[in-house]
């Protein structure tokens, strides 16, 4: 069995995203950068994740670059996952080292999408400095752009989405971050690659953004937090199972549900 989960705003939370009224003694630091704690999990979430890791292969999945993923000591060091998916599926780490076979497959897949320079030129023609504050090319694959969501025109977002689709790219907006990513780079394909290596068929997965849809589509049991991009788009439908909790409490609820689901499956197999 595999448990594949997005990290930010699914398992780990900044102070701005965790919600209000969380007692300090329930929080455990999990990310450190320049001697500053950036992200947390609750004690209960860490306990539940450890229990899940005892019965399943835990695979962290993130749009973060390799460097950014390595800051999350509470995941990387505590659980020492053999496999991790970073760069939105652009990189697979095996024991902390990028898998070169997967890297070659990704480079071939990216040939069907427009070059990143063309995407940058398109974005520059549609954006203005008042809301597109700064951005960078990540791992030579995709763009992360810091935006002022309050003043970004919706019609620009719609135009970007339509034009990027024609060029083989996709867009995701999560809080103050906008991601422009080749459509062939996705978390679901990376997870299928690992599943083939492990010979594993059962997967539970969790994620909060549109970039997690490919991941959730692979899963036999999929759940999303009651907040974020997926919740905003699909809350009124029956496409995804959402937690009733939002913020950092959502991680506790989804992990408990996954633990119960996996233990039930294990008992049926044993029986």
Automatic annotation (TrEMBL):
Transmembrane segments: none
InterPro entries assigned: HAD-like_sf (IPR036412), HAD_sf (IPR023214), SPP-like_dom (IPR006380), TPP-like (IPR024197)
Pfam families the record matches: S6PP
All copies of domain Sucrose phosphatase-like, residue ranges: 2-219
Top-level taxon of the source organism: Bacteria
Identification of the protein by name: Hydroxymethylpyrimidine pyrophosphatase-like HAD family hydrolase
């Amino acid at each position: 069995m595999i448990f594949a989960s997005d990290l930010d705003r699914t398992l780990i939370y900044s102070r701005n995203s965790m919600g209000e009224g969380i007692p300090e003694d329930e929080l455990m630091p999990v990310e450190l950068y320049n001697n500053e704690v950036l992200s947390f999990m609750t004690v209960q979430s860490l306990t539940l994740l450890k229990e899940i890791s005892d019965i399943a292969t835990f695979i962290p999945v993130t749009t973060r670059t390799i460097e950014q993923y390595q800051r999350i000591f509470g995941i990387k060091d505590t659980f020492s996952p053999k496999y991790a998916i970073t760069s939105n599926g652009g990189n697979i780490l095996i024991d902390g080292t990028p898998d070169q076979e997967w890297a070659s497959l990704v480079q071939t897949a990216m040939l069907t999408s427009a070059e990143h320079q063309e995407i940058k030129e398109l974005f520059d023609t549609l954006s203005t400095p008042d809301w597109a504050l700064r951005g960078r090319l990540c791992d030579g694959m995709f763009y992360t752009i810091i935006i002022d969501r309050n003043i970004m025109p919706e019609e620009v977002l719609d135009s970007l989405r339509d034009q990027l689709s024609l060029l083989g790219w996709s867009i995701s907006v999560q809080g103050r971050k906008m991601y422009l990513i080749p459509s062939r780079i996705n978390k679901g394909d990376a997870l299928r690659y690992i599943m083939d290596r492990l010979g594993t068929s059962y997967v539970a997965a969790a994620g909060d953004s549109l970039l997690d849809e490919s991941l959730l589509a692979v899963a036999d049991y999929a759940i999303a937090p009651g907040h974020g991009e997926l919740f905003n788009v699909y809350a009124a439908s029956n496409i995804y199972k959402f937690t009733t909790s939002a913020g950092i409490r959502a991680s506790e609820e989804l992990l408990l549900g996954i633990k119960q689901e996996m233990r039930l499956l294990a008992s049926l197999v044993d029986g």
